[in-house]
Each structure stands twice: as structure tokens, then as C-alpha cells.
């Protein structure tokens, strides 16, 4: 399936079209899946600020540290050997488009956090990207949602660099800027630490259903 073939020609895919082992995001079961102020797109848009980093798989690493019992670092080959998961979810960009019915593949967030061991003092997460020190923040509760995934594939294809490949974080219940592209590091912290867009005026939380776009 090419990027062009990801155009959705009919009704939005629904959760009943997927196998039992796929993790179903709760928002896909809503009667109305498009949040206030959003419009469904049938395309698979590309949107980011700044450059697309060049990432070589032979030097790529993912680190999980901060308030964890066992800090972890994975090479690409080590990451690819981890237990795999699939998540069916909708995807809401703060710029008002929503793409409904995405099938993400990768490693469940809970899988890696169980391995790392979350310390009781941890309350927030800071996701770091390979793109010039970019970060975003979120409550630990949202990060540990059952449908949160470290994704390396989308709708059957490896993630392209434009879409955050080789690996991006996907947290479906928050606006898409929280689903950090070009993921490099996950840091668990006790105190909230707003990231780049949050410091620039975007909402600190980012719930699409209550239109937490700016401020707050």
C-alpha cells in the first residue's frame, strides 16, 4: 500500500473490521468520532515544524529513563525483537483535521514500561525527538493508556520519515502533536515540564474532545 493508496474512499473504517487481538482505542466506539472543531480528512496528511531529521538505523537508539527502576536502551534490532502489538485508533491534529480508522503497529507502551518499572514518584512523561531537542509532555496516566503505542508501521507500511519514522509515539486520546515523531527518549519525571509547542502557547494537556488547543 503506497501513501496515495491510503486515501479513504468510503466510510471511515470501524473497530469491528479488525481482529480480536488488535487493541481498540475507546474513541473509535463513539457514535460521533469527529471531535468539536474538527473535520474528517480522507487523506494521510503530513504536518510538522522544521526539518525532517536523517536517522540511520544502525545508530538509532530509544532510551527510557528518569523515574524508572530499570533504565532501558534499545537498538533498532533489539526494538524489532520485542513483542508486537497493533492499535486501531483515530488521529486528531490540532490544526482541525481528523483521520479516522488508523492501524498502528509496533510495541505497546505498557510493554516497555512494565519492563522499566514505573517509580511511585513519576507523574509526567517527557517525550524527546531526534529533531533538534524537540520535546512534548503529558500526564503519566495518558501515556499509559491501553491504546498508546511505540509505532513503526501505519496501515501496513513502515512509517516514512515525513510521518515520524522510523519510530513515533502514538497517544490517540490526545491531539496528534503529543504523538511525538522521530522518537528518541522517554523520560519519566515528578514535575510537569512543558515541551516546545506547549511553551509556545499550545495547551498543556491537549484533549481534542474539550478543544484543549491553546492556553491552559
TrEMBL record:
InterPro entries listed in its UniProt record: OxRdtase_Mopterin-bd_dom, OxRdtase_Mopterin-bd_sf
Q: Name one GO molecular function term.
A: oxidoreductase activity
Q: What is its EC number?
A: 1.8.-.-
The UniProt keywords, alphabetically, are: Oxidoreductase
* Residue ranges, annotated region (Disordered): 1-39
Q: What is this protein called?
A: Sulfoxide reductase catalytic subunit YedY
Q: Which domain of life is it from?
A: Bacteria
Q: Record the organism.
A: Symmachiella dynata
- Domain Oxidoreductase molybdopterin-binding span(s) in chain numbering: 50-197
Amino acid at each position: 500500500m503506497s501513501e496515495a493508496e491510503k486515501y479513504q474512499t468510503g466510510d471511515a473504517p470501524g473497530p469491528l473490521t479488525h481482529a480480536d487481538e488488535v487493541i481498540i482505542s475507546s474513541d473509535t466506539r463513539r457514535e460521533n468520532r469527529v471531535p468539536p472543531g474538527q473535520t474528517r480528512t480522507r487523506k494521510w496528511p503530513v504536518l510538522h515544524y522544521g526539518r525532517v531529521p536523517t536517522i540511520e538505523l544502525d545508530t538509532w537508539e530509544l532510551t527510557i529513563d528518569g523515574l524508572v527502576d530499570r533504565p532501558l536502551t534499545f537498538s533498532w534490532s533489539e526494538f524489532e525483537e520485542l513483542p508486537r502489538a497493533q492499535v486501531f485508533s483515530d488521529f486528531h491534529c490540532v490544526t482541525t483535521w481528523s483521520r479516522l480508522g488508523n492501524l498502528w503497529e509496533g510495541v505497546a507502551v505498557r510493554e516497555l514500561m512494565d519492563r522499566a518499572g514505573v517509580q511511585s514518584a513519576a507523574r509526567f512523561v517527557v517525550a524527546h525527538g531526534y529533531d533538534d531537542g524537540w520535546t512534548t509532555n503529558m500526564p503519566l496516566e495518558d501515556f499509559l493508556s491501553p491504546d498508546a503505542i511505540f509505532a513503526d508501521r501505519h496501515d501496513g507500511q513502515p512509517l516514512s520519515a515525513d510521518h515520524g519514522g522510523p519510530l513515533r509515539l502514538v497517544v490517540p486520546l490526545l491531539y496528534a502533536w503529543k504523538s511525538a515523531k522521530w522518537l528518541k527518549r522517554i523520560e519519566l519525571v515528578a514535575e510537569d515540564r512543558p515541551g516546545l509547542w506547549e511553551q509556545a502557547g499550545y495547551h498543556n494537556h491537549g484533549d481534542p474532545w474539550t478543544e484543549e488547543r491553546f492556553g491552559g
